[in-house]
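User: Quick sanity check before I run a bigger batch. Here is a single chain. Can you write out its predicted 3D structure?
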Amino acid sequence: MNHLIKTETICSELKFICELMKYQSHFQDLQLTDMNWNQFLELSLHHRVYPSLYAHLKQSDVTIPSDVSKTLKAYYQQNTFRMLPLTAEMEMVSSLFANHDIRTLFLKGPVLAHDLYGDLSLRTSSDLDFLIPIDQLEQAERLLVELGYEKDDYFDTVLNDWRWRHHHVTYYHPVKGMKLEIHWRLHPGPGKEPSFQELWERRRTSTIPNSSVSILGTEDLFVFLVAHGARHGWSRLRWLVDIQKMMQQSLNWESVYGLFDKYHNPHVGGQAIILASNLLGAEFSDGMRPFLTKNAKQLAEEAVFYLEQMVNLHTDPVPREIARYHAKHLFSLMSSQQKIIHLASFLHPFPEDAQTLPLPTSLHFLYFPLRPVLWAWRKTKKQAIS
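Assistant: Done. Predicted structure follows.
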């Protein structure tokens, strides 16, 4: 089948960025005379690709305005200076946790930059994400508090639903300006995912010289990055560039397909592969063919919306029409089993139920039969206020 998707509605500035990020570019097809260079810079920041974009421009024969080049260089240098202390903090946290027998898998940050790009300065990162066993969360928090970190976000919970509805908690160091995300799941629930023990047995050691930091195995990393990018609508091009880099590696695609089939949805893997191919020129290999389905192509076409609109899902409030589109798209990413689990999760009490009708902890089990009533009450009250 034809795997080309429609990208005509993407602005020329973003198309130029995509062309620059390809391994083999064809700049003669691009009209740079009408380029909005302010938008070009804005897009490079929004999509978090300015470090590798600057590196690609240095190696190409494309001429851009000198002030634009200087601005990109300044962004690149700022990122380099930011990644160095982040790397040192990662090494320190890894060593500290290892000394207290807390197994730690770093997910993104400096380890991902060096693993995929071969250079810490070529990928942006604002924090450190790492995964630990859920039963060691309290111990990890005590260690971070002793280092001066403060818990930066809190969430309400009822009947321990935090264990599967959420997947990480954030800590911030007010003096260092460092942010850490401790994960006990790779993704928010509900849904199946590999146990920490499985991931630990397939782990690798970071490629950063003299580093002993543990990272996900190659196939696990690909599945994690795809699921993460898809969950955010591929609204940042940086995530697709990561996929482009991984598609050039020698992955065991049969194993990758098995992981998607067991824990996610193979169509989501196909969505990422098709997007990376169409936008960034990533090449298909024979092992990727099972992913290239009609449903995968449709999901890839739906994701173009996020690039057209320059969608930002990380800053509240998200515009209502975008939030609605995103909710619908997230549901379309799910397998049939995931959709059933997702819908069934609405039967489990929510923190809002406890806020509507506070009950002693010993009576929280009553929220199960009361949930339809409490939900209807809140909806009626909201409509009355409106």
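Residues 163 and 184 are 8 Å apart (CA to CA).

User: Great, the batch can go ahead then.
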